[in-house]
Every structure is written in C-alpha cells, then in structure tokens.
Amino acid sequence: MLFLQNKTSVGLYCLLTIIIFLAVTTGCNSKPTQRTSLTVAVASSLRPVIEDFVSIFETKYPQTKIFLASGSSGALAQQIKNGASYDIFVSANQVYTEMLQNEGFLDAKATRPIATGKLTLISHTNQNSIDINKLLTSAQNKHISIANPRLAPYGEAAIAFLEDNDMLSTNKEKIIFTENVAQAFQLILSKNADLGFVSKSLVKSHAPDNFGMVYELPEQYNSKLIVTVGLNKQANSNPKANEYYKLLFESKYQNIWQKYEYESLIAN
To answer: Is residue 110 part of a domain?
Structure first.
C-alpha cells in the first residue's frame, strides 16, 4: 500500500511538471503586446492642435501612449537643456529650436518649420470701438494680459506691437504678465483681465460666445511666430517618436493647422 502511494505521488509529480513546462514554453513562444510611450513638449498656444494629432496617432497606434508637457517655448527649451527627456519639441517660434539644434539637443535633420501663428487681441466683453489705441487707453479696460516676453513668443510679439505704436509706457500699469500665453488667455476666460494678447489658435479652441471681441493684429507681428518642430537626438531610438514627427508634416492632415487658424507651410 505504501508502494502504491509513492507511485501515485510520483505520477502526480510528473504530470504537474509537464503542465508547468507546457505553460512556460507556451508563454515564451507567445509575443506579448508591447506598449510604448513618447513625450511631446509643446508650446501652450499649440496644445489644441497637437492634441488633435495625438488622437489620430493613438488611433493608428493604440499601443502607444503620448504624454504632453506644455508651457512657454522658452521654459520648455530650458528644460530640454537641463536634461528633460522629451522626444519631440514643438515651439511657437524658430528661436528656441534653432538654439537647441545648434547646441546639439535636437536632430538637425529633423528640425523643420511647419506653420505660422496669428497674434490676436481679445476681450470677454463687447467693445465700443475697434480702434486699438482707444481700446488700450479706455478707462473700462483696466487689465491687459500678456505672456512673459522673455519666454513666450506671443508675449514678445505683443510687446513689439505696443512699442511700435508708442503704447507700452502708457499701459505698463495695466499689464499682467503670465508665464505663458495659455495663462494670459485664461485670464480673459475668467474675466480677470479685460484685454489679452493671445494666439488665434487658443481662441479657435473655444466657443465664440466666450469673447466679446476678437481682433487680429497686423500680419507683420506674426513674422516671428513660425511653429517649428524638432526631434530630440535621444529619441532616435524610439521609432514611434519618428512616426509621430512625420505625422505632423503629412499633407493630408494640414487641415488641422488651418482649423486653428495657422498658416500651414506644408504643400498639400
């Protein structure tokens, strides 16, 4: 009887060993789904556009997750210089991408301009005049939101406009400087500023009834608002980063840039 018990135990042991072996070998032979990710540093004025491209990309590559880090172009550029592991940088102008490219952070062969933005003056209330001088000097407009010109291209363009029209010194007390243009825009939405110099793309990402006035500034102030995309040199090992970079330039998707009032620089 003792012999039969031992024999049974051995048989069970062998059967269990075979089951484990089969499970392990089957698992080794199967190819688990690989999930990948990439991070895009994007100027806050461009976030609505880039989010549309993210939706397209993640539909096409459902196993890839894209994370967005937004802020002023200057602040993001400094983060990249300090070692931030962003795969792609989308800047609101060429200054910061050229700087990073020259310093060896961005791939020179994968840094290209893609579109031109529009500087816009907005208000949350209806204005009695579209004369800019009257608007900016009006007693009813006590606060003007502008992004930090040292870090944000739209802030720099706004200051250039005020200086060219001799209106900077007379409005210094009214100006509220924000870290980036999205924050300047938010001050209008929250009614904490009466006028704001922002990107047209942010305006287009919200319902028209949020604004009492939307006024595009002369085109000359858009000359430096050239959206430029750069691929981080370290991202060359991430094939999905290359795929997303290419997607931004595909001619069939240039209508997305136009949707947000950018002038696409890519031929259809």
So the answer is: yes
